[in-house]
Amino acid sequence: MSALAYQLVPVSGWNPLVLILLALIVGVLVYMIYRLGNHSYKETKYKREPFLSGNSPADDPDSLHIGGSNLYWGFTRALKRYFEPLVRGHTGLLNDYLYWFVITVVVIMVVLYFV
Amino acid sequence: MNWKMSLVVRTVTNFLIVPIIVFGIYLVIHGHLTPGGGFQGGAVIASSTALLIIAYGSLGKHKKDLSSMEALGLTMFILIALFGIGSTMFYNYLAGTGGIFGGVVPEGANAGFINTGGTVPLMNIFVGLEVAAALSLILWMMSKETKVLETEKSSPSAEGQEVRD
Amino acid sequence: MNIDIVQHSPALILAVPLLFAFLTPLVDRISEKGRDALFFLGLIIMAFFVAIMAYEVYTVGEWSYVFGGGTVTPTGADSSFFRILFVADGVSAMASITLTISAIGAAIYSYTFMKDETGLNKFNTLFFLMVAGVNGMVLTGDLFNLFVWFEVASVSSAALIAFKTYEGKAVEAALKYMIISVIGGLFFLLSIGFLYGQYGVLNYQLLAENITGTNLDKIALTILVVVLALKAGAVPLHFIIPDAYSMAPGSVTAVLVVASQAGLWVLFRVVFTLYGVAVNTLTIGWIVIVLGILSMFIGVTMALVQKTVKRLMAYHAISQTGYMLLGVGVGLAVLGKPEMGLYGRTAMEGGVFHIINHAMYKGLLFLTAGAIIFKTGIRKLDDLGGLGHSMKWTMGFFIIGALAIAGIPPFNGFASKLMIYKSVYRFNPLLSIIAMVVSILTLASFVKVFHSIFMGPKDEDIYDTGDVPKPMLAGMTILAAFVILFSLFPGAVVSNIVEPAVEALGVI
Amino acid sequence: MNWEAILMTMPYMTVVILFMIGLFTVLFKKNLIKIIMGIAIMQNAANLFLVSLAYRRGEHAPVFTSAESTEMVMPTAHALTLTSIVIGLATTALLLSFVIMIKKHYGSINTDDVRRCKE
Q: For residue D8, what are the contacts with CB-CB under 8 A and spacing of at least 6?
C-alpha cells in the first residue's frame, strides 16, 4: 500500500495535490479578506465609467464584441513576412501535398545516407 | 429504372449468368487446392451481377439484401475464426477430425482432396459470399450514382452546396 | 475446453469490434434500438478485454499471441516464422487504453450528436472498423500485418470523414486524406519488400535480431519514418490533418486524433525495437527532433491565424504531436549512450505520457467544438459569441481542455510538458526554449477561441435553447474525468502505465 | 558483359519504371481520375516487386501437387501480393466513389478546383 501511496503523492518532483492544497488555502485567505470589506457598495446600473481615452464607447455595450479571428491582428501584422508565405503554403492542392511527401522522403534519405 | 437493353442482350445474359456463377462457385470451393479462393471466386460471381446491371439497368429492390448478405458472410467468417479460440483464434480445428471437411491428407505429392481443408474451405465460402455481395453492391451503387445507364441527359446537379460558413 | 480469456485477450480485442461491426447491418434490419445497444455493448466488451490485457501486461509481463498456432506462445522459432503474431506489451496496452477511453467517450457523445443523420448503421460499422484498425496497428508484431491494419484504419477513417456527404468540403477532405494514405501505404509496401527481400522474415523480433543497417535498410527506415510521420501529422506532411479534422463530424475527430497517434506509436516501435542501435541513433534522433520542432512551431503559428474553431484545434493537434516527437526524439538521440539514464529516459517518458494526455484533452476539445457547431451551426469564430450564458457545461469542459492543452500547472498537459522541458533542456537548451514559447502561443490562441465563443453579449436565438443534450455531456464528462484524474495523480500514471510502455520500446 | 546478372535485375527495373510512371502521374496530373490511375499503376509496381522478391532460379511454383517438397518458390510473398491486391481494390473503389461525389458537389474533378478546404 505504501508504494501506491508514494506514487499517488510523490514527494520529489511535480505534485499537483500540493498545488491544489495551496490554492485552497490562498482561496480561503482571500475570501476572509473579502468578507472584511463593507458590503454597502451596490452594483448600480449607472456606475461611473472609468475614462481611459478616446471617445466614450457606444451607448449599447453589448455590440462591442470583438470578433475572434482578428484578436492578434498586431502580432500577425508585425510578422507578416513570416505569416504570408505560411498561410499561402497551405494551398489545398493535392499535388502540392504529394510534392511535400516526396521532398521529405528524399531529404531524409540524403541525410541518413551521408551522416 | 427505365433503362433496358434490347431483348437479344437480355436473353443472352440470362443464359450467360448460369455458367459464370457456377465457375465462380467452383473457384471458391476449390480455393485450397487450385489457385482461386474466396476473393477470386466472389469477384467472378460479381462479374455476373455486372452483366445483370448492364442488361436490366438495376438489381431492383435488393440493396438491403445484398448488404445483409455481405454482413452475414463477414460475421460467419469471424465466428468460424473465433470458434478456434480453444487453442488460438483462426486455429484449424476441423483438420483431420473426419466429417465433411476433416479428411486426413495422405503422404507424398498428390492432387489433394476437397475434404481435407478443415476450416479453410468454410472460410473461403463465406469470403466468396461476402465479396460477391460487396462487389455487386459497389458496381450497382456506382452505376446508379453516375447515372451512366440513364438514356436522357440528367439535369446538371446544383453547383456544390456551400457549407453554412 | 478451458478458454483462458487472459491469454486470448489480444485476439479478442480485435475480434469483438470486427464481429460487432458486421453484426450491425444485420441487427439494423430488425430494430434501431438493437443497433444502438449493440454499439455500446461492443465497445464495453472491448474495454473489458483491454482492461484484462493491460492488467496482465502490468502484473505478469508481455507475451505474444500467435494466430492459428497450436498454443498461444510461439513454440520454437519456426512456428512464429510464418504465422501472424500479436504482441501484448506495454506499448499496445497503453495505446489500447487511450483508444478505448476516447472511443467510449465519442460513442456516447455521438448517440445524440448523430441523431438526425441517416445511415447510422454504416456509421457504427465504420466506427467499429476504425477502432479495430487502430487497435490492430498497435497490437501487431508483424510488419505486413501492420500494413493491412494501416489500410483498414485509413479506409474507415476516410469514409467517416466523408460521412456528411451532403457537404462538398467533407468529401474533398476525405479524398485527400485517402489518396495520401494510399500512396503512403504503397511506399510502406516498398519498404516491406526491401526488408523481406533481405532477411526473408517479417516478424519484429526476428527482423530486429538480424537487421545490420545496410544502405537498403536505411532507405527502408526513411520510408517507414516518413509514412508513419505522415499518418501522425508531422509538419512537412501535415496538410491533410487540418482538412480532415475540420470536416469530420465531432465525435469522429476525437477518435481520429487517437488514430493518428497510432501512427506515432508504430513509428516509435519501428525506430526503437526494429532498428534500435543498428542505425546511427543520433541522426535518426535528430531527424525526429527536427520533425517535432517544425510541427510544434508551424502548427501553433498557423493556429493563431485560423478563423474556424475546428481548424484551429486541428493545428493544435499537430503542434502537440510535435511535443511527443521532440520528447521521444531526444530519447532516441541518446539511445545506448550513458546520457540515456540521465535525461533520455525522462524525455521519452514525457513524450509517451504526453500522447495519452493529448488524446484525453484534445478529444475533449473536439467534442466541445462539435457541441458548439451542433448547437449553433456556425463554424467561423467571428460569427460566434456570447455562448457562455447558455452553454454552461460546454464552457466548463472547454476551460478544462484549454487549460490542459496550454500546460497550466494543475492539469495533465503541464505534467508531461514539464518532463519534456526538463530533460530536453539538458540535451539542448534551445529546443526546450522553443517548446516553452510554443506552449505560450498555444495558450494565446485558446484565449482567443474562448473569448470569441463564450464571452460577449447574450445571443437571443441561441440563449433560450440551453446546453447540449445529456448524452453529449456524458461523453464529455468521461474525457474530462480522465483529464482531471491524470492531472491529480501524474506520478501514479507515469510509473504504472508509461514506464512499461517505455521499457517495451526496448529502452533499458 | 554479365548478361546473366542483368537478366536477373530485369523485374526490379520494371518495378522502378512502373513506380516512377505512377509517381509522375500522381504528382503532375491535375485530373483526379488520372491520379487514381497513377495510384493503380503504383500498386501494380509494388505487387510486382513483392512477387519478384520471392523468385528462386529454376524452382517450381508453390502448388503442392506439382513439385517435390524442397524446390519451391517462397509462397509468403505471393500471399502478401494477394492481400495487397485486395486492399488495392478496396481503396480504388472508395477513391472512385469519392470522385463521383466530388463531381456531384463541385461540378469538376480538377485538383485546381477541388480545394475549398483552404481557409
A: none
C-alpha distances in Å from residue B4, one per residue of B15, B51, B139, B152, C143: 17, 12, 17, 13, 49
CB spacing of B85 vs C65 below 8 angstroms: no
Q: Cα dist. B81→B86, C196, C364 in Å?
A: 11, 27, 37
Asked whether D and B share 3 or more beta-carbon pairs under 8 angstroms, the answer is yes
Which cell numbers in the block locate residue A82?
513570416
CA atoms within 13 A on the CB side of C67: 21
ipTM of the complex: 0.90
The long-range contacts involving A33-36, CB below 8 angstroms and separated by at least 24 positions, are none
Closest CA to C104 of C152, C149, C45, C163: C45
For B107-122, the pLDDT digits (tens) are 766 667 777 778 888 8
Residues forming beta bridges with residue D31, ordered by sequence position: D110
Contacting chains of A (3 CB pairs or more, <8 Å) are C, D
CA distances from D93 to B141, C159, C202, C486, D88 (A): 11, 12, 28, 43, 9
Q: CB atoms < 10 A from the CB of C170, how many?
A: 25
**D62: nearest CA partner in chain B:** B35
β-strand pairing of C63-66 with C85-88: antiparallel
Walking along chain A (115 residues) 10 residues at a time, the average pLDDT comes out as 60 75 92 84 62 60 61 83 87 89 94 87
Q: How far is D52 from chain A (nearest CA, A)?
A: 24
Name the amino acid, one letter, at C232: A
pLDDT (tens, 9 = 90+) of chain C, 508 residues, equals: 556 788 888 889 999 999 999 999 999 888 888 888 999 999 999 999 999 999 999 998 888 888 877 666 655 555 445 678 888 889 999 999 999 999 999 999 988 888 777 778 889 999 999 999 999 999 998 899 999 999 999 999 999 999 988 888 899 999 999 999 999 999 999 999 999 988 888 888 888 888 888 888 999 999 999 999 999 999 888 899 998 998 899 899 999 999 999 999 999 999 988 888 888 888 999 999 999 999 999 999 988 888 888 999 999 999 999 999 999 999 999 887 887 777 888 899 999 999 999 999 999 999 999 999 888 888 888 888 778 888 889 999 999 999 999 988 888 889 899 999 989 998 889 999 999 999 999 999 998 888 888 887 776 666 666 778 888 899 999 999 999 999 988 888 888 899 889 888 876 5
Distance between CA C161 and CA C156 in Å, rounded?
A: 9
Compute CA distances C115 → C94, C102, C120, whole Å.
Answer: 32, 20, 8
**CB-facing half-sphere around the CA of C484: CA atoms within 13 A:** 10
Q: Specify the residue for cell string 545490420.
A: C212
Instruction: Give pTM, 2 decimals.
Output: 0.90
- For Cα atoms B48, B53, B57, give the angle at the middle one, nearest 5 degrees: 160
Residue with cell 510535435: C322
User: Which residues, in sequence order, are CB contacts of B115 under 8 Å at separation 6+?
Assistant: B100, B101, B102, B103
Q: Best mutation site among A101, A111, A113 for testing chain C: the one with the most C CBs within 10 Å?
A: A101
Kindly state the cell numbers that stand for C374: 451542433
Put simply, whether B107 touches D (Cβ < 8 Å) is no
CB contact under 8 A, A113 and C215: yes
- Residue of chain A whose Cα is closest to the Cα of C169: A92
Of D23, D29, D115, the CB nearest to A93: D115
Contact C430, C379 (CB under 8 A): no
How many whole angstroms separate alpha carbon C231 and alpha carbon C225?
A: 10
Please report the domains of chain D, with CATH numbers, ordered by start residue. 3-57+69-106 (1.10.287.3510)
Q: Which chain D positions have a beta carbon within 8 Å of C182's beta carbon? A: 39, 91, 95
Residue B47, exposed/middle/buried by CB under 10 A (0-12, 13-18, 19+)? middle
